[in-house]
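Structure (tokenized):
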């Protein structure tokens, strides 16, 4: 086992810390898999509906907006596809992104007791959360295919790229969550503010209604919103339409990849301090 000696003269070497992060990420996959399997089984062990609960949120949200649209309560502009497909794909991907943002904090909070007693790579908790997200994604892809068949959406080769868009969106959410996690663990109010803010952000994102065609503040906000190309690209792949926001989508993922290292760095140096304070 690695031996570490702590003295008052110890300083943090950025390059050494980055090397340790990569080494621990690589070495923690087995532990992360075991933790993910344990948590997945525990989530549905005493539930009657079991795994079906992961579909409840996107389905119920989509059904509410489909009802409002069909009843004329809310007037939705042209979406370029059947509105049920538009609403379901939007709420499905949005629920994945929100879950990804919350995953680092949830995984870390559930492992606080273990971290205070056992020395293991803290990155294993993040990877464990990622494994659980991938499990959820595979199940939701199956539900998406069923939904497309119901509404007679013709399949194209674009459809095989949808899982990559979903995984990219999950990665984007987890990167955001890495920066939020230390603050939400220290102050519970942060989690509440984030949850409230994401509810408002949903209405500045084309989740349940399309980007307005006329120039307006909400149109500008949606076009600048980094969540928009994720949703727009997924919908266009699902329906075989032209990819109108592909450069923006690639840019969002590229920036996420660049700042993910900073997120892991921030997470690694902050979590031991939080454990000590708790």
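Design, position by position:
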């Amino acid at each position: 086992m690695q031996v570490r000696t702590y003295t008052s003269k110890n300083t943090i070497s950025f390059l050494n810390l980055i090397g340790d992060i990569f080494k621990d990420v690589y070495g923690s996959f087995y532990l992360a898999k075991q933790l993910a399997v344990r948590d997945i089984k525990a989530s549905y062990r005493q539930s009657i509906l079991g795994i079906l609960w992961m579909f409840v949120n996107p389905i119920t949200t989509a059904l509410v907006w489909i009802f409002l649209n069909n009843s004329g309560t809310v007037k939705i502009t042209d979406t370029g596809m059947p509105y049920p497909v538009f609403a379901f794909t939007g709420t499905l991907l949005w629920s994945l992104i929100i879950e990804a943002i919350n995953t680092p904090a949830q995984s870390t909070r559930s492992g606080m007791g273990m971290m205070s007693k056992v020395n293991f790579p803290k990155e294993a908790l993040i990877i464990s959360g990622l494994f659980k997200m991938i499990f959820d994604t595979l199940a939701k892809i199956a539900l998406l295919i069923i939904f497309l068949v119901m509404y007679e959406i013709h399949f194209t080769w674009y459809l095989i790229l949808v899982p990559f868009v979903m995984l990219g969106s999950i990665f984007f959410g987890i990167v955001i969550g890495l920066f939020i996690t230390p603050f939400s663990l220290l102050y519970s109010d942060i989690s509440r503010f984030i949850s409230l803010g994401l509810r408002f952000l949903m209405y500045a994102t084309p989740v349940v209604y399309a980007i307005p065609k006329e120039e307006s503040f909400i149109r500008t906000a949606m076009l600048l919103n980094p969540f928009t190309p994720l949703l727009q690209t997924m919908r266009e792949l699902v329906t075989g339409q032209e990819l109108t926001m592909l450069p923006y989508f690639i840019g969002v993922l590229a920036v996420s990849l660049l700042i993910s290292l900073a997120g892991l760095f921030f997470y690694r140096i902050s979590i031991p301090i939080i454990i000590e304070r708790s």
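Reviewer-requested clarification: The chain is about 70% helix and 0% strand. The radius of gyration is 21 Å.
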